[in-house]
Amino acid sequence: MSDLKNASQRKLSFFATMKAVCWSFLGIRKGSSYEQDVAKLNPIYVVIAGILGAVIFITTLILIVKNVVAN
Question: Where exactly are the structural domains of the chain?
Answer without folding.
Answer: 2-70
